[in-house]
């Protein structure tokens, strides 16, 4: 029975995983031979994104400050809003606080079209401008659209290719799962990560290109090229494990080496962490958020707090609407998402952390070993820094991946995160109760389902699979 | 790679599933030979549960009506509370409403201790009195305790055996997963479903007994004997599929017959349903819930609405506290949870429904084919009755399971549900978009994770596995 139960959990027919692995090994393609030039050229297009006083957001058919609450809302009630959050928890050094938070009830489609060329799977990515992007243009999924967008609330053009994801029967679904986004900045946000493989002709619009996973893996090592949404969708594909080990799953039963924890033990550990931590997070009027000031330049924390809410004005002829204003969440400085990995019994394990964040749908998701806003570093005494932070920052020889990538430029202004993977085969096996060593394959099995892995962990898993 | 990914999803070593199946086939045991007599005797003990006016709940160290909100709360702030819920959705005939709702942020332990006797797995169940139970005493998990209970907020005795679940290393974890409860009556409620196998001696307290799964399966066919919490925990065990087919999972890739949908297609269908339906459910003061009246006998719906909130006074010498008062949610009449099953390609499929309920953590969970409060039947015109309701009620020859079982007697007063399984091999394969045919094995694979199957579907799956 369990052998059969196993097989039922397969997301992918064998042939598909083989083809995905083949695509990951193909680092050049006749279809898009000059991808670097192409990206550079796209970045030369004229875009403009300027910070404006929050009060200037107010427009009859645009954004405004809601009377009574002070919330920032679009007149249509769609897109997203900036509201207040009142958090109480039994976890961590601060047990109660208020903060602004982005609220987006819509589920956006983050969709990628896949198609074979010359026998190799290619993925259709878009060079997309977002107002909060570093370098303005980054590579995004084929479609990155809220239902406000594809139902055309903003009166602009419909996003290209969206019909592949909204109309049934356009192709074969390879992946289709809801995943969370930043639990510190979004309230219960989740998006639909979907990949559809088509066999027929697909018109190639300006700003789009077909790339193999090998080409994408190479671009992933460049600063701020692969955007967050592309990373989370691609991360849901089952690429080959980095070490190519034959893996026998719950190894203890077959006598072969498995992960240090079985899947049952991992699920039990996650359940235990969720049971340990209570957290209630209630939306409240933005005006009632104590500890934050409304200034001309935005809503800023009185002290502590590591982001502000600002407004921007945007001009971009390539977007569905050519000019608009909107609020953005602007982090103060660089984030760090650091993952320690090590071989245990010959198998690559990652040290993940059960992370409690107010925007999580079920309190806990798995995060990197360390997640930290580096701006807080100078003012944080050594004794209050996150576990393993200094260890990661001082790593030299074991650095396997170290690239700055951006978070969502449609909601965040210049939100950069340093994604750091450090291999340390001498790292202690015994770790505090909030941490666990989990193999890469086990993380990929968890990622088939919603809300196990947080968004930074998912990007790191994609990076690991591209090492 | 996918073959390995499959194996990682195994919850259970092979030997365990074999032992669970063996336990399910053992319908008599030397350990508890006279289980029917034992249950009857337990039911003869003196318990008393009386409905009292809500105002009489008010006690300095007990329950009270919170000033300002009218919420019913325990003075300790623990256990649960009765608050108001304001629901808005784009789904169903009613798009906005307010209702009372039970709120319980604590994660309760629903824990069962398992142990081998004579080479067969037995499970330690408790004959437990709950104030809202039909027949007062039903068989419950070994431990059924909120953290308010096991941290002794109520100043009573600590629940027996709770240390097996709160202290590490007492046994081997077989199952440990959070699962939801009634999404129409609870706000975001979930409990920890956990089974631990021990090998050492376990003291046998009064009111507890060891049962095989075969004995439990027999009791499951008797009215109001196996309580809701025992059903949900036992339902997480991987018993053998009823038809014993060799199952090959994603059958299309091996050329052998699989389910009508692959797991990828099932996950995609669930994702699609969640994306289709918007639902926001905000807690509001109970006093602000329009359409409900506070009367002496409780909080009752002005019209429609199929439950009331009442108060009870309880005397029970076998509980940790011998006498107390508390509120309960009292449904108006019998619920129906009906499941249509049929063989497709030789394999048993169940017709489940993507059910949108305000208390769900992610909008949609899978429910039975039909869930309905039978009290509403006479006043619901044929055209507004749920799909397939009349078909199920008129079924004759294909009835495979038809037993009335109770929902949680610690929160609900006399909440009875008729669990009905109808096999109909002529039932149409094409069904509306909210429905899907899923094999029993596929449902069991989903049940390894939180919040795929609603609580009624989980009871029905347990019943199916005991056919």
Automatic annotation (TrEMBL), chains A, B:
Residues 35-237, 264-464 form the dTDP-4-dehydro-6-deoxy-alpha-D-glucopyranose 2,3-dehydratase domain. Gene3D superfamilies: EvaA sugar 2,3-dehydratase subunit (3.90.79.40). InterPro entries: EvaA-like (IPR005212), EvaA-like_sf (IPR038153). This is NDP-hexose 2,3-dehydratase family protein. It comes from Sphaerisporangium corydalis.
């Amino acid at each position: 029975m369990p052998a059969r139960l196993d097989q039922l959990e397969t997301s992918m027919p064998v042939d598909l995983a083989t083809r995905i692995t083949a695509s990951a090994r193909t680092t050049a393609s006749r279809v898009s031979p000059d991808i670097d030039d192409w990206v550079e050229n796209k970045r030369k297009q004229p875009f403009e994104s300027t910070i404006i006083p929050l009060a200037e957001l107010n427009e009859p058919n645009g954004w405004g400050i809601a009377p009574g609450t002070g919330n920032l809302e679009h007149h249509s009630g769609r897109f997203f809003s900036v509201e207040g959050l009142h958090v109480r928890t039994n976890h961590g050094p601060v047990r109660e606080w208020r903060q602004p938070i982005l609220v987006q009830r819509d589920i956006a489609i983050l969709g990628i079209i896949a198609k074979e060329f010359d026998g190799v799977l290619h993925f259709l990515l878009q060079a997309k401008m977002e107002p909060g992007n570093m370098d303005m243009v980054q590579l995004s999924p084929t479609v990155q659209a809220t239902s406000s967008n594809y139902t055309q609330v903003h009166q602009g053009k419909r996003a290209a290719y969206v019909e592949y994801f909204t109309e049934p029967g356009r192709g074969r679904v390879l992946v289709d799962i809801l995943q969370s986004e930043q639990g510190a900045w979004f309230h219960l946000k989740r998006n639909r990560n979907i990949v559809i493989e088509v066999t027929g002709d697909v018109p190639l619009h300006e700003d789009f290109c077909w790339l193999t996973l090998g080409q994408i893996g190479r671009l992933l090592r460049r600063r701020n090229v692969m955007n967050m949404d592309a990373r989370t969708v691609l991360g849901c594909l089952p690429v080959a494990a980095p070490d190519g080990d034959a893996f026998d799953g719950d190894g203890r039963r077959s006598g072969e080496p498995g992960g240090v924890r079985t899947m049952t033990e991992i699920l039990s550990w996650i359940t235990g962490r969720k049971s340990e931590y209570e957290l209630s997070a209630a939306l409240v009027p933005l005006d009632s958020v104590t500890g934050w000031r409304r200034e001309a330049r935005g809503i800023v924390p009185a002290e502590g707090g590591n982001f502000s809410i600002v407004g921007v004005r945007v001009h971009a002829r390539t977007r569905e609407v050519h000019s608009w204003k909107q609020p953005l969440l602007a982090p103060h400085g660089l984030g760090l998402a650091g993952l320690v990995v090590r071989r245990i019994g010959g198998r690559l394990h990652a040290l993940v952390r059960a992370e409690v964040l107010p925007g999580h749908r079920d309190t806990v998701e798995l995060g990197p070993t360390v997640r930290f806003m580096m701006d807080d570093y100078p003012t944080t005494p050594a004794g209050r820094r996150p576990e393993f932070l200094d260890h990661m920052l001082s790593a030299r020889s074991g650095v396997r991946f170290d690239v700055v990538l951006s978070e969502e430029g449609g909601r965040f202004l210049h939100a950069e995160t340093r994604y750091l993977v450090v291999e340390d085969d001498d790292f202690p096996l015994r770790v505090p109760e909030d941490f666990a060593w989990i193999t890469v394959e086990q993380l990929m099995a968890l990622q088939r389902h919603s809300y196990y892995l947080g968004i930074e962990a998912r990007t790191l898993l994609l990076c690991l699979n591209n090492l």
